[in-house]
C-alpha cells in the first residue's frame, strides 16, 4: 500500500477519535497533521481546536469531505490542478463513518490506478 494511502488510513482513525471526543478544528490542513512510522497521525496546532458541548451527535468522518478539507486528498493540496488520489471517494460517493475494513478495501481497490481529474 502506498504511503499516502497509509497516511489516509491513519488519519481516518485519528479524526474519528477526535470527533468522538466532540472536538472540531478551525484550521484543518495537512500542516496540522504529524505522521509517524508507527502508522499513526497526530492532530496538532490545537489552539485552533474546540470542544462542542451540546447533545447533538458528534461529527461523522466522511472521506470525500475530510480528506479534501485537511489537504490529503491528492499529491498536492490543489486537487483540481494536480488530481485526486483514487482512494478518495469522488463523483458524489458519500461514505459516512467507514470502519477499518471499508477504508482498507478503498485503499486496495485504488492500488495501481491513475489520479482522478474532475470533468
UniProtKB/TrEMBL annotation:
InterPro entries in the cross-refs: Kinase-like_dom_sf
Domain of life according to the entry: Eukaryota
Protein name: Uncharacterized protein
Amino acid at each position: 500500500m502506498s504511503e499516502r494511502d497509509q497516511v489516509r488510513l491513519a488519519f481516518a482513525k485519528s479524526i474519528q477519535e477526535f470527533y468522538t471526543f466532540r472536538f472540531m478544528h478551525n484550521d484543518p490542513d495537512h500542516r496540522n497533521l504529524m505522521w509517524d512510522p508507527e502508522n499513526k497521525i497526530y492532530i496538532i496546532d490545537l489552539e485552533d481546536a474546540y470542544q462542542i458541548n451540546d447533545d447533538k451527535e458528534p461529527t461523522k468522518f466522511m472521506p470525500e469531505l475530510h480528506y479534501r478539507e485537511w489537504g490529503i486528498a491528492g499529491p498536492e493540496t490543489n486537487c483540481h490542478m494536480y488530481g485526486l488520489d483514487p482512494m478518495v471517494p469522488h463523483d458524489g460517493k458519500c461514505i459516512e463513518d467507514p470502519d477499518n475494513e471499508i477504508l482498507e478495501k478503498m485503499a486496495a481497490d485504488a492500488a495501481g490506478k491513475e489520479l482522478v481529474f474532475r470533468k
